[in-house]
Amino acid sequence: MKVKLTERDALIVVDMQNDFMPWGALPVPDADKIVPKLNAYIDTFSSMGLPVYFTRDWHPVDHISFKDNGGIWPPHCVQDTEGAKFHKDLIIPKDNKFIISKGTSKDFDAYSGFQGTLLESLLRERNVKRVFVGGVATDYCVKNTVIGAINLGYQTFLLIDAIKGVDVNAGDTDRAIGQMMKAGTVVLSFEDLTA
Ligand code: VGL
Ligand code: ZN
After folding, report:
1. Which of 19, 126, 146, 176 lies in disulfide reach of 76, CB 3.0 to 4.6 Å?
2. Could you give the domains of the chain?
């Protein structure tokens, strides 16, 4: 399926932070392997002047999603720590880039980049109509961001060659991809983009 990018398109890169890398506190297997592919997308969008939104998990140290506070996760992506930084090789363009922090208040978690953030208003401001989503984790924040975008009326593309899942339960990632497709996302690979 060939897709030609237009000025109404935007790229959303989800949570490519150290703590989700194989060396991090909440490792997503092979999450580091998708950095070159994400960089190819980032380069393509930014060289066309299209906006790139980087979401990041940005938790206070006593966040509700952490095991010690009744959540299910080890402490991860604590604000201003090394683990919360983006992978060092991820290209962060100088212009037309936006950092979207989520899960920033102690008592709320956010798996979607739209939840409690300015992402929707930033997309509106730019008159974005279609979003292309990659990053981690497929079965949590990617899934919720994709479904959030669809529910807000955006045509949504899932970058199948630039996502990785956690698979807390075997098959979670594949199930998440199925759910996103059922919700209406179009699965896309880098080769599908045409000039
Ligand atoms: C995520 C678990 C906890 C994610 C964030 O980015 O998918 N997963 N917090
Ligand atoms: Zn989190």
Report:
1. 19
2. 3-194 (3.40.50.850)
